[in-house]
């Protein structure tokens, strides 16, 4: 029987609660399927470890993950640790060395979920945002000099490489080609940013030649927010830089009903290293310990994990179970206006997994 090795990194805050729920759901899928096993190893990396030892993870942390088939991640961030330390100390310290350069964020209005957009329902908003995940505005280039003096300077340099832009563009075109509408929107800001963003546009055009069946267009990122809000059905697959897609994916999650639903895959598409799956939301200390975190984003991420490791039937079964549950407003957590708890939603998803016969 196939056994996949999964590294679980719950991290901080509600990350711990939703990953626990996600592992229960994965266990139920393994039982239901009978054709594969998951060997899960948990890592206690995160802000508590930072406060104890001065580091969120061991120095060779990313290397410790190399032999796993996938990584299941919760969230990182604590009220008493600066956000840039937690981000660079854990999430980026995994994504960058493991070269998980394609961050894929599907957004859809699930059954039973209401969009804040008037007259927009399931089917009107079905997007996948492809976020460049290795360079751009998150390249880590920059510095500060003359701290505290009137002449203090700080730089935050965006890096765009031909290799980096071309590989994310190819990934986006390939993904667009695999979806029924074969439609890609390339987001830039090439009117104001005339070097990196103009190169981004040029590479998009070059790569498009290899995908003659994909219809593609270009949008400036500011205008893109308007199009997403006023004409969501005109979009399908979207590719953007690290920071632009970060911002657009929060907007996308809100327009699809809640950030509590939105999943992410940090992929190394060539499979040279394990990919990492996580909810988009953060550690949410305001609701930590209350048992009301929405586990749906984590379940959806778990479904992407199963798809990636090669268990598409289990992935589909999980997605169907999620949609059965979201369709019932009694099973909505407070972020969706309901009163259900994390446990209640988890039990319902497990029941739906067990109930299906095909
Ligand atoms: C995301 C998040 C992170 C990011 C935060 C937590 C640093 O917003 O995954 O979208 O900006 O990359
Ligand atoms: Mg974000």
UniProtKB/TrEMBL annotation:
**Names of required cofactors:** K(+); Mg(2+); Mn(2+)
Where is each Isopropylmalate dehydrogenase-like domain found?
Answer: 5-349
What does the record give under GO molecular function? D-malate dehydrogenase (decarboxylating) (NAD+) activity; magnesium ion binding; NAD binding; tartrate decarboxylase activity; tartrate dehydrogenase activity
Pathway named in the protein's UniProt entry: Carbohydrate acid metabolism; tartrate degradation; D-glycerate from L-tartrate: step 1/1; Carbohydrate acid metabolism; tartrate degradation; 2-hydroxy-3-oxosuccinate from L-tartrate: step 1/1; Carbohydrate acid metabolism; tartrate degradation; 2-hydroxy-3-oxosuccinate from meso-tartrate: step 1/1
Q: What is its EC number?
A: 1.1.1.83, 1.1.1.93, 4.1.1.73
Which residues are listed as membrane-spanning? none
Record keywords, A-Z: Manganese, Metal-binding, NAD, Oxidoreductase
InterPro entries associated with the record: ICDH/IPMDH, IsoCit/isopropylmalate_DH_CS, IsoPropMal-DH-like_dom, TTC_DH
Parts forming coiled coils: none
What is the recorded name of this protein?
D-malate dehydrogenase [decarboxylating]
Cite the Pfam families for this sequence: Iso_dh (PF00180)
Cross-referenced PANTHER family, in alphabetical order?
D-MALATE DEHYDROGENASE [DECARBOXYLATING]
The entry sums up its family as follows: Belongs to the isocitrate and isopropylmalate dehydrogenases family.
């Amino acid at each position: 029987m196939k056994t996949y090795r999964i590294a679980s990194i719950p991290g901080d805050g509600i990350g711990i609660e939703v990953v626990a729920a996600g592992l229960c759901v994965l266990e139920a899928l393994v039982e239901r399927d009978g054709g594969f096993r998951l060997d899960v190893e948990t890592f206690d990396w995160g802000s508590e470890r930072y406060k104890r030892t001065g580091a969120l993870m061991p120095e060779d942390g990313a290397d410790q993950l190399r032999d796993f088939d996938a990584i299941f991640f919760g969230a990182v961030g604590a009220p008493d640790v600066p956000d840039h330390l937690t981000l660079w100390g854990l999430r980026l310290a995994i994504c960058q060395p493991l070269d998980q350069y394609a961050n894929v964020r599907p957004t859809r209005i699930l059954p039973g979920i209401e969009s804040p957009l008037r007259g927009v329902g399931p089917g009107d908003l079905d997007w996948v945002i492809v976020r460049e995940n290795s360079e751009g505005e998150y390249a880590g280039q920059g510095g500060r000099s003359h701290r505290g003096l009137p002449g203090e300077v700080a730089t935050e340099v965006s890096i765009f490489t031909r290799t980096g832009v071309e590989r994310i563009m190819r990934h986006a075109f390939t993904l667009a080609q695999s979806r029924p509408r074969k439609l890609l929107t390339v987001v830039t800001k090439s009117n104001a940013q005339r070097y990196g963003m103009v190169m981004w546009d040029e590479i998009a055009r070059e790569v498009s030649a290899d995908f003659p069946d994909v219809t593609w267009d270009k949008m400036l990122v500011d205008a893109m927010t308007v199009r997403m809000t006023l004409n969501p059905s005109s979009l399908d697959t979207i590719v953007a830089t690290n920071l632009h897609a970060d911002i657009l994916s929060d907007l996308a999650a809100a327009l699809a009903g809640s950030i509590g639903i939105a999943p992410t895959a940090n992929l190394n598409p060539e499979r040279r290293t394990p990919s990492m799956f996580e909810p988009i939301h953060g550690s949410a200390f305001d609701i930590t310990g209350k048992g009301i975190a929405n586990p749906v984003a984590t379940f959806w991420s778990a479904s992407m994990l199963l798809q990636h490791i090669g268990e598409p039937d289990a992935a589909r079964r999980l997605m169907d179970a999620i949609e059965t549950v979201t369709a019932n407003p009694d099973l909505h957590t407070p972020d969706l206006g309901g009163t259900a708890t994390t446990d209640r939603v988890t039990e319902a998803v497990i029941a739906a997994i067990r109930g299906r016969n095909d």
